[in-house]
């Protein structure tokens, strides 16, 4: 009785064929591997070439030309500190050349460094590093804006000391400098639904976000670029906050949705309304029903990014177990 196992082990012409296949296997494997590498490189190149004007960062921006120290860090001078609401500011950092752009890719962020007291270690001062995403457009000349939500001491019973970096940032005055490093870009949008995600090219036509508080900043960047460039990417977000007054950039978000309703959909959810009679959206925690209603259905060209407090991100991943996350 001939089994496939018996054939490969047999002698004669069949055995010789198997032998040739065995010899060819590494060559074929190498050729396939090389083919795949070439395919991915070409695809990446074509995405980079696709990169339409509005999505291309300046190649001679502040980030490319600024002076850096031996750790690749640079200094930026605070030129304006704009109060956004009861606990958030826009920190504007100016460039010496008013015609220069920042030079960041869409979706990139910057690391801020500061020497801050550590309340859990006898208030000993040590260096703290935190990430922040600009909200100003790629083509903004002369300055870059960061929106930062401040965690003050005593505001939250679970965090009596507040936040180390944000307390430091709130104390900054115009004219002060901040040490920074970057850019770091893990989810870069190139335009026309082309993405580079952790270094790999992907086609994603629909972006979903389950966001909390300051988690809106990268999505604000993506949305503004989509609207300004009449780009086909669709963005749907569920945006959670404590109360109405905590919703960041609400007027700007409502305007973006109004301008481009086919591409931008925003659903607000808050823990507890201060004015329940005038709050006509969801209240409480996110549920599968809320997410299903306001996010695109799962699919090969749909991705969801959760950016909120850790428990909210965990719940999102559990509720949307059949979605692709990045
Ligand atoms: C890729 C990336 C981009 C980011 N972009 C932005 C951005 O654009 N804007 C922005 O504001 N943040 C952004 N963040 C968050 C930011 O990096 C910091 O984590 C945040 O500012 C808190 O830093 P901290 O040192 O003040 O707080 P920490 O000292 O690190 O405190 C830790 C945590 O305790 C909690 N906490 C402390 N005090 C309070 C309080 N009073 N109320 C509620 N919770 C409290 C918060 O969850 C806080 O994150 C980003 C994070 C990442 C990973």
From TrEMBL:
A Pfam family assignment: FAD_binding_6
Residue intervals of the FAD-binding FR-type domain: 71-190
Keyword GTP-binding: no
UniProt binding sites for FAD: 130, 132, 147, 149, 165, 217
CDD domains, sorted: cyt_b5_reduct_like
Xref: SUPFAM superfamilies: Ferredoxin reductase-like, C-terminal NADP-linked domain, Riboflavin synthase domain-like
Gene Ontology cellular component terms for the protein in this record: mitochondrial outer membrane
Predominant place of localization: mitochondrion
GO molecular function: FAD binding; oxidoreductase activity
Cofactor(s) annotated in UniProt: FAD
Compartments, record wording: Mitochondrion outer membrane
Keywords assigned by UniProt, alphabetized: FAD, Flavoprotein, Membrane, Mitochondrion, Mitochondrion outer membrane, Oxidoreductase, Transmembrane, Transmembrane helix
InterPro entries: CBR-like (IPR001834), Cbr1-like_FAD-bd_dom (IPR008333), FAD-bd_FR_type (IPR017927), FNR_nucleotide-bd (IPR039261), OxRdtase_FAD/NAD-bd (IPR001433), Riboflavin_synthase-like_b-brl (IPR017938)
PANTHER family linked: NADH-CYTOCHROME B5 REDUCTASE
Protein name: FAD-binding FR-type domain-containing protein
Naturally occurring in which organism (per UniProt): Euplotes crassus
């Amino acid at each position: 009785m001939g089994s496939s196992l018996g054939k490969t082990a047999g002698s004669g012409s069949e055995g010789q064929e198997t032998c040739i296949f065995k010899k060819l296997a590494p060559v074929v494997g190498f050729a396939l591997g090389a083919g795949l590498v070439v395919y991915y490189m070409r695809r990446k190149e074509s995405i980079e070439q696709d990169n339409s004007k509005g999505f291309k960062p300046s190649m001679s921006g502040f980030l490319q030309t600024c002076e850096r120290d031996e750790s690749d860090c640079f200094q930026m001078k605070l030129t304006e500190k704009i109060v956004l609401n009861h606990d958030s500011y826009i920190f504007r950092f100016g460039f010496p050349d008013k015609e220069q752009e920042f030079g960041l890719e869409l979706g990139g962020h910057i690391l801020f460094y500061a020497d801050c007291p550590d309340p859990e270690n006898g208030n000993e001062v040590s260096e703290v590093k935190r990430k922040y995403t600009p909200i100003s457009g790629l083509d903004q000349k002369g300055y870059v804006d960061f929106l930062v939500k401040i965690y003050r001491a005593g505001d939250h019973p679970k965090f009596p000391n507040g936040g180390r970096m944000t307390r430091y940032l709130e104390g900054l005055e115009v004219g002060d400098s901040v040490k920074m490093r970057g850019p770091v870009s893990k989810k870069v949008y190139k335009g026309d639904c082309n993405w580079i995600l952790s270094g790999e090219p992907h086609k994603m036509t629909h972006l979903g976000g389950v966001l909390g508080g300051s988690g809106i900043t990268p999505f604000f960047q993506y949305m503004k670029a989509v609207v300004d460039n009449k780009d086909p990417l669709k963005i749907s977000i569920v945006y959670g906050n404590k109360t109405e007054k905590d919703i960041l950039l609400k007027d700007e978000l409502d305007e973006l949705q109004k301008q481009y309703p086919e591409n931008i959909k925003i659903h607000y959810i808050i823990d507890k309304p201060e004015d329940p009679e005038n709050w006509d959206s969801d209240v409480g925690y996110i549920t599968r029903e809320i997410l299903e209603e306001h996010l695109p259905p799962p699919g090969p060209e749909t991705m969801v990014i959760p950016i909120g407090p850790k428990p909210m991100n965990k719940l999102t991943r559990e509720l949307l177990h059949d979605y692709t996350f990045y």
